[in-house]
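To assess whether the prediction recovers the assembly geometry, we first specified each molecular entity separately, as shown.
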Amino acid sequence: MAETPARLALLRRHPLLWPVVALVALLAINVVANPGFLSLRMQDGHLYGNLVDIARNGAPVLLVALGMTLVIATRGIDLSVGAVAAISGAVACVYIAGAPDGGSVGTAIVACSLALATCVALGLWNGFLVSVLGIQPIIATLVLMTAGRGLAMLVTDGQITTVNNSTFAGLGVGFVATLPIAILVALGVFALTALVVRRTALGMLIEAVGINPEASRLAGVRARTIIWTVYVFAALCAGLAGLMIAGNTSAADANNAGLWIELDAILAVVIGGTSLAGGRFSLAGTLVGALFIQTLATTIPNLGIPAQTNYLFKAVVVILVCLLQSPRVRHALRVRRRTLPMTAKAGVA
Amino acid sequence: MSQTQTPAAVGSGTPAPAREVAPVAGRPAAAPVVEMQGISIAFGGVPALDDVALRLYPGEVHALMGENGAGKSTLIKALTGVYAVDAGTIVVDGREESFTSPAASQAAGISTVYQEVNLCTNLTVAENMLLGREPRRFGGIHTRAMNRRARATLDRLGLDIDPASVLGRHPIAVQQLVAIARAVDVEARVLILDEPTSSLDADEVARLFTVMRTLRDQGTAIVFVSHFLDQVFEISDRLTVLRNGRLVGERMVAETSQLELVKLMLGRELATLEELDREVAETDLVDRTATPVLQVLGLGRKGSLQATDLSVYEGEVVGVAGLLGSGRTELARLLFGADTADTGEIEVHGTSRRFRSPRHAIDRRLAFSSENRRAEGVIEDLSVADNMLLAMQASRGWLRPIPAAQRQALVSKYVEALDIRPANPDATMRNLSGGNQQKVLLARWLLTEPELLVLDEPTRGIDVGAKAQIQQLVADLARRGMAVVFISAELEEVLRLSDRLVVMRERRKIDERLNDDVSVSDVLELIAGQERPTDQERPTPQEAPRG
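The predicted structure of the complete assembly is given in tokenized form:
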């Protein structure tokens, strides 16, 4: 019995508490509005349901947000991920459309590899600007954010390129072992990232560089290499997300693919409790954050509110998150919390 | 509201019982302007202060003493409204206060000048002094009135500083005085000076003390926090000693000896330093015919260090003495590749090397602990363990993490060996005191098993206990064969530890000699030069003394 309050206190201070509470609250609202919201059904060996939809549609944001988490942990930011996603989809679709054997598995694999290789190059460019030339990350990646859509247009010749390749489309709409491929890919990347970051020393070194770059340099940390690596990783994640988005519609839309996804990704990272000031980061928090954003997008139409107002609700979330992270509000809340248990104690005594 | 005149039950386990403290001779008895009683603060269940009392009298300098982690900073932050107290009362001028912000405390007449000067170096002296309270005219700032008012305050303190000059042009010591002038200008009745002398030289300290005496005689209550015992005894009237978050006692300085104070602070006799003196004095077993661990020829960098030669041998401590800005820190940074040299050659064990980054130096088994612990040492948000293992992990590369068992063994070994407190490897670095952070940083470098250790001001701003421990450690390391370059502003410390002495002035080496029977005054003469050039009367280049 004596342990329970201690455990509760620990839980109350757990950094993931509030993101999870928010997600559960959002799901609860949906259940109230539509009691069958959580139900899942099996059809032709495929799992269907609102929860599956949320996870599947949230997969691209989750991927982009994973890369963004590491970038933000180094005190950086990557605004170009949306453009990179568009370029990735464009490269893949144009290759498939031009290939003699447009529907084959081999073509799809070559197309995806080509697209991801392009993304690595783009990530190297971003990383070069930030880590070697020392340009502020927000400016450095703004270059590719604006120029990138132009590049994608060049690749697709300004047309929406449609393709007919079931393997490629599978990335967006396919199923393996009852679950959508998109979910499996995103979770796979998530697990792999978490494994690499936390089982090696990479996570600690990223945090050290993010908290105090100069002290890290003097301790012999190869800060430049680390920063460069995270930008490449972010671009790679964005490229994978771009392939999913293109696969979903079997088309590359240079103008709209991955539009504003960088903002969703940043929001997911912040909701997950990683500070924009760099330093300590939480991949699990980002996962919850990405799911929260997608659930929000699903909730709005589910409540009968026009989907166009989605941005308004996101804005409200941003404001709430900012308020909760503001030192002044936190202080005010802490003072209140401090007085509350005291009076409770007095009541008992 | 009547105010209790009974002093707090001072001391837990001290011989001095609660007693009426006699007023300082020559000054009338006065009620304390600040009376803190029964103050307790805990962070996450760990008590930082436990039933502590502090009384500040107008017209007195009150030294707040204790080792690092004793609770001095926490107590000051309670008084200045940075931390809320869990229990206890703060009475200012007979009114009980509960400050919820630094602004509230300031409004009650309590001003603080922190160790790191918190001013804007790009503004003028007057703008800094009156920031946020500028005299206005026609909706704009009335610059002339502002300068006039700043001048008046500076005059009152006997300071000859041009209010219209840009603050950043002045040396740190003057900036510190400006910070005090700013605090005085807000009509401070209590002035808290947190380690004001840690980066000042002797003349500057004297100047600061003059200002402090002026203020004291004008009726200000001054809290003085310092690790320099001599200074405490020179300037203070009364002192309060804390240890491990508890009150040890309040004493009149005139009735206390230095030894007594050290005993109070440490809770034990301190023979370590004397032992160390004997050990170092007896041994000079350095073999200077062998190949030096590190040899530099003509090492220099434009604007920071003129061409300098230096050799360091195995098992040798080379002490570097010199004032701030003499080039001592610049030398250390160039040795380690923290800055890249323009000229000169570096040889490690006789092989020529080029250090383009600290990384290269670390690969050659060099280590460097920077004088700027906060900006260039600690990773505040990471744990003690991560901070300790950072350099070692960086050398191994991220793909080869240190196995958990080895990690734990290494960390607990060094936590114990260096007496790091709290002895919790998972504690966040931010929450450690300065001395303990310094020990963690030393451990970080010792883990890389360096052959040459460059220590720039490793004992600055830390308490006597930790200082003695670090000095002991350096002596031990040298005895076991490590080469050490030891830089410190404290000449006694440099002389106590080094086998050989290098003296720096005006960005170059002016002297190098074996340390046998070199006295502090010898070194002072070297540092000062024969003509003792000062800022006001700089010698013409022809007359400049040659080293």
